[in-house]
Amino acid sequence: MSQLDEEDRLLVERLEHKLRANGLQLTAEQRTQVERVNKRLVELELEFIYNVDHATNHVMLSRAELDGLPASFFENRRSEFRGLTKKFIVLAQAAEATAVLKHATNEATRKTVYVAQSSHCPKNIALLQEVVHLRLEKAQLFGFATYADYVLNQRMAKTPAAVMELEESLSAKLRPLAEKEMAELCALKRTEVEAAGAVYDGFYEWDYIRYSSQAMANQHRVDMDEIKEYFALDSVLSKVLSLYTTTLGLKVIEASSVLPVWHPSVKTFEVWEADDSAFVGHIYLDLYEREDKYQDIAVWPLRSAVVGEDGTRMTPASAMLASFSEPTETTPVLLTHINVKYLVHALGHAFQNLCSKAKWSQLTAPRDFAEISSQMFVQWVWEPKSLRTLASHYQTGATMPDELIERLVASRNTSRAIRELRQVFRGIYDMDIHRITKAGAIDVVAHYNELSERVALANYGDAHVFKAATFSHIMQGYDCGYYSFMWASVISADMFSARFSGQDSDAEAGAAFRSEILQPGGACDPSASVERFLGRAPSN
Predict the structure, then answer these.
(1) Which among 505, 513, 494 has a CA at the least distance from the CA of 248?
(2) Cα(500)–Cα(383) distance, rounded to whole angstroms?
């Protein structure tokens, strides 16, 4: 081992860990148990995700019940008559539910939609409970006290204690700010309710989107429907790719040859060094919704950048999937500002794969380190300089006015402490259910609801909800890993502030980021990579 370079040594350590994780040190009987557990876990995780992706919960609401919704909401919307009343079908899924929760003046309507959205997939409750117990069984077969100990020993965080120290520190700092923000939202609701001659009886989860949107409009005069007009998908995508390539010393062009794709709508691009000195890899973009397609914005590495058996480097390929509506003949796809953020985040993962210079495919970046590059470049969507590049009106081509940019940037902090505290809550919940030492020690639904009320200031009133049944991240590789969003957010904000908002040019900072963070990936110690880039230890 002493004669190996750092990358080869890490490979040996990673392979040893992988072999041990597959039961190398276990008895034959124990290996049989691990095989049984792993097989059952795969079945449960796939079933959980299938149930979420194919949920069809909906509610039937009249035009009166949907008072406040814009006329566009009712265009082409399916409806049925219930007696003499025309009822519209509203799916309890993100886009439609959010529209109702934002615009509906009737609190009973908002509650109905929120409960429908937060109580589908009841079968997943038992699946999650069984998954938690099986993960514990697996960890203890390998000699770990908890599943969190088993997973984190190969992560940047190393221990559950380190994760909880971060989460609890953030919670303590965010809570007084979140309580102040919540008081402001309560005041908005009280004013509206009492102006209508009704009695204010409290602030609930189904009120949050409506009144946080009002707070944003009141404080900063930001209308997200107006903001969307500056973010046409094709335009934004081209400009985001340009920001990445300019910063990292690359260029992107449409693929010069026809590549095999899994659907005719998939677009393919080549990535080259900016000076044409070398071909870097491919990006596949699968952007539009279709039946049974994955619903979120995400990136998968189709091929890693590794050295082949003959010594030649295999060029990487990344695929980004999204489910945007198809453009119409008159209107392009217009993105919300949050979807621009998600787009930038996802492409960060794509370029992480493309820029890797790791020799071995097994040396992928650990989850909490892999989020850093994506989280850091998300800062672009809040930087006035970047917004002047990204935002242009879909009809006129005019750049977003500076005054509107200023208001949008200022709106970032509207209810921000509440949002961040809810991320902290999810990270703590993920750790809590995976830190149990005895099967049956935790009720996954009861703990989710109690913890969200205690940590995230949630109030469900008398509603029966079980949002734990749709917490898909912990079934898709983020088990004991949800903390990585906040972990990476803290580190990446420090990195962006230190290098991209400091004295360095974006090109200088980008070159350093590419060489110190992206190229090594998981081929060297992540903490050491961050410290080399910063020139010091990271700070929160």
Answers:
(1) 513
(2) 11
Task: Compute the Cα dihedral for 399, 400, 401, 402 and give only its sign.
Answer: negative
With beta carbons less than 8 A apart as the criterion, state whether 485 and 374 touch.
no
Distance separating alpha carbons of residues 375 and 369, to the nearest angstrom: 10
Q: String of b and e for 60-75 (b: at least 16 CB within 10 Å)?
A: ebeeebbeebeeebee
Residue 15: per-residue pLDDT: 84
What lies within 8 Å, CB to CB, of 356 at 6+ separation is 304, 305, 316, 518, 519, 521
Helix (H) or strand (E) holding 61: strand 58-62
Please provide the size of the chain in residues.
540
Alpha carbons 299 and 315: distance in angstroms, whole number: 17
Q: Tokens 């609890």 identify what position?
A: 168
Beta strands in 215-278 (DSSP E): 250-254, 267-273
- Reduced to 3 states (helix: H, G, I; strand: E, B; else coil), residue 323 is strand
Q: Which amino acid is at 287?
A: L
Tokens representing residue 60 in the block? 């039937």
Kindly tell me the burial class for residue 466, based on how many C-beta atoms sit within 10 Å of its own C-beta (0-12, 13-18, 19 or more). buried
Alpha carbons 25 and 47: distance in angstroms, whole number = 31
- The runs of H, that is alpha helices, within 378-499 are 384-390, 402-410, 416-433, 444-455, 483-495
The whole-number pLDDT of residue 503 equals: 65
CA-only gyration radius of the chain, Å: 24
- For residues 159 and 365, give the distance between their C-alpha atoms in angstroms, rounded to a whole number: 17
First to last CA, the chain: 36
- Amino acid identity for residue 525 in this structure: D
Strand 250-254 and strand 298-303: pairing?
Answer: unpaired
Classify residue 281 by its DSSP letter: E
Instruction: Supply the pLDDT for residue 14.
Output: 81
pLDDT for the residue numbered 467: 96
- Distances in Å between the alpha carbon of 96 and those of 180, 233, 326, 367, 428? 29, 20, 17, 31, 29
pTM: 0.85
Q: Which of 270, 249, 255 is nearest to 315 (CA)?
A: 270
Q: Which residues of the chain have pLDDT under 70?
A: 1, 502-504, 540
Rounded Cα gap, residues 329 and 15, in angstroms = 53
Helix then strand count (H, E) for the chain reads 19, 10
Amino acid identity for residue 436 in this structure: I
Torsion angle defined by CA atoms of residues 505, 507, 513 and 515, in that order, rounded to the nearest 10 degrees: -130
> Alpha-carbon distance 140 to 317, whole Å?
37
Q: Would you state the pLDDT for residue 454?
A: 97
Per the DSSP assignment, residues forming a β-bridge with 318 are: 283, 301
What are the Cα distances from residue 299, in Å, to 155, 347, 370, 471?
A: 20, 7, 12, 19
Q: What pLDDT, on a 0 to 100 scale, did the predictor assign at position 502?
A: 66
CB atoms within 10 A of CB 272: 16
